[in-house]
Amino acid sequence: MSTPAQTLTNDSAAARARAVIPGGVNSPVRAFGSVGGTPLSIVSASGPRVTDVTGRDYVDLVASWGPALLGHAHPEVVDAVQRAAARGLSFGASTPGETELAELVIDRLTVGGVRGIERLRLVSTGTEATMTAIRIARGATGRDVIIKFAGHYHGHSDGLLAESGSGVATLGLPGSAGVPADIAALTLVLPYNDRAAVEAAFAAHDGRIAAIITEASGANAGVLAPEPGFNAFLADTAHAHGALLILDEVLTGFRVGPAGWWGLEQTGAHPFAPDLVTFGKVIGGGMPLAGVGGRAALMDLLAPLGPVYQAGTLSGNPLAVAAGLATLRLADADVYAHVDTAAIRVQAALHDALTAEGLPHVISRAGSLFSVAFREGAVRDYDDARAQETWRYGPFFHAMLDQGVALPPSVFEAWFLTAAHDEDALTAIVDALPAAARAAASA
Ligand code: PMP
């Protein structure tokens, strides 16, 4: 039975969804798990705004959890996808577009004459990208153990959910049921930004560690930037012990700058050489596309050249590649400058609004990515991120939503600005903040 469109509300849409979809959502972060209330049911989006089933518009700071760097439904991206669709949805064969995209990504990841990656294999999700990177690392080293950091999220594969960020953090879970203990035991979870913990892990498990996987900058337990030189330390330490460094740029890649977080560090005081780099989100411009890249010698371990198997019916899907190519071609220096400036403006207004209410807070930043934590003092690791007045975020979030601004529905997620956040959109955000700060203060 279909519901007439004019009677739809977010409540009725969610109730109908819950009857047939677990929790009414196809990804847990979409449920308003920690902020309460009914999730929005979105029917369309354009530029900086999304529109729900009731026809109400919101200025959007979720940006599809990162991919919408240019804003929603950029006309040139939509046109590229429509033209690709008219040529066929999927061929199960190589296409010239995927080679162009690999060339473009390798070119972008060449900074100061240094090549960050030499080969790229396309997959459909960030989860597949990190899962494949780990398989390559294990295949290359003949070792089994992986180091990850508490509060980092690398997708939902078995070995990577322990003390994970994103929805796992929002829901306060230690990991996931259904992961065999023997597999979980192969993942060592360490506190982020803690060099001594990394050295101790290598000392305790010498010769068994295949790789360290790290978010290029932490951004899934709130924004947790690496301390200066920490990524370079990870690369050096891994290499000194015959292990690899997997840099997860699924969230940061092509968002914090043209060559991702690695690009920012490459031109800074502590350049470093990751062995494998994973991409997602912006690389597909809103379509299901992700990738794993690295040095030729490592990447050529993948089938059909080598013994490490990985495959995908829809890998390098032509519509997704068209969206990714169009997005990356449009993501020029002006786009990054706009996103940076917009982020600085919103951060300043957020700080002012919270200060006016006398609320303890820290705004953690990593390039244009930022998030708020309701506490004092720097947030350096997952324990710091959790030690805050998390309950203040729900009222803050809902006060923003009531005023037409959709924030990420968790205090542990970054706020995403886009190139489409124009003066109107930024003013709407800034104007809504004082009332939200009042709601947070009275919580
Ligand atoms: N790595 C990081 C750093 C991420 O932020 C995410 C998703 N938020 C993933 C991996 C997983 O990507 P996907 O959701 O496409 O599987």
Automatic annotation (TrEMBL):
InterPro entries: 4pyrrol_synth_GluAld_NH2Trfase, Aminotrans_3, PyrdxlP-dep_Trfase, PyrdxlP-dep_Trfase_major, PyrdxlP-dep_Trfase_small
Keyword set, alphabetical order: Cytoplasm, Isomerase, Porphyrin biosynthesis, Pyridoxal phosphate
Gene3D superfamilies: Aspartate Aminotransferase, domain 1, Type I PLP-dependent aspartate aminotransferase-like (Major domain)
Gene Ontology process terms (BP): protoporphyrinogen IX biosynthetic process
Cofactor: pyridoxal 5'-phosphate
E.C. designation(s): 5.4.3.8
Pfam families, A to Z: Aminotran_3
Subcellular location: Cytoplasm
Reactions this protein catalyses: (S)-4-amino-5-oxopentanoate = 5-aminolevulinate
Superkingdom in the source lineage: Bacteria
Pathway(s): Porphyrin-containing compound metabolism; protoporphyrin-IX biosynthesis; 5-aminolevulinate from L-glutamyl-tRNA(Glu): step 2/2
PTM-bearing positions, type N6-(pyridoxal phosphate)lysine: K281
Cellular component annotations (GO), alphabetically ordered: cytoplasm
GO molecular function terms listed in the Swiss-Prot or TrEMBL record: glutamate-1-semialdehyde 2,1-aminomutase activity; pyridoxal phosphate binding; transaminase activity
Subunit structure: Homodimer.
UniProt similarity note: Belongs to the class-III pyridoxal-phosphate-dependent aminotransferase family. HemL subfamily.
The name this protein goes by in its record: Glutamate-1-semialdehyde 2,1-aminomutase
Gene behind the chain: hemL
